[in-house]
Amino acid sequence: MKDTNEQHPPAEADEASPRTGRRYQEDAAAEADEEPKKKAKQKRGRRRILPIWLRLIIVTILFAVSLVIGLIAGYSWFGDAEGYDVLQPSTWQQLLDFIQAND
After folding, report:
1. Which of 88, 87, 90 is nearest to 65 (CA)?
2. Which of 57, 74, 84, 89 has its CA 20 to 30 A from that of 45?
3. Bigger pLDDT: 27 or 78?
4. Ordered DSSP codes for 22-61
5. Mean pLDDT in the chain?
6. Which of 75, 69, 67 lies closest to 92, judged by CA?
7. Residues 37-87: pLDDT tens digits?
8. Which of 74, 95, 92 is CA-nearest to residue 83?
9. DSSP 78-98
10. Does the CA dihedral 81-84-87-88 come out positive or negative?
11. Are 11 and 20 in contact (CB under 8 A)?
């Protein structure tokens, strides 16, 4: 068996070795200098053009507009009626009466 306490000779400090040599030491020193700068930038956070609350409001409005457009288009194409009639409360009352009558 091999003795695990055996010491290996140190690697020569040449440019070919990836973890030794002057170039690696310079890169490591440069990374160590940049480390505090990166952390300071990361702590500041990301600046958003539109805040999240504004995005939620915009998405809600777009959803409502697309729902109304879909109701008008579907009622006029498939229902063979005037598209804006779908926005009348009497249309919805008639629909609710039809649903409740089948119970």
Report:
1. 87
2. 57
3. 78
4. HHHHHHHHHHHHHHHHHHHHHHH-PPPSS-HHHHHHHHHH
5. 77
6. 75
7. 655 555 667 788 899 999 999 999 999 999 999 999 998 998 888 888 899
8. 74
9. TS-S-GGGGGSHHHHHHHHHH
10. negative
11. yes
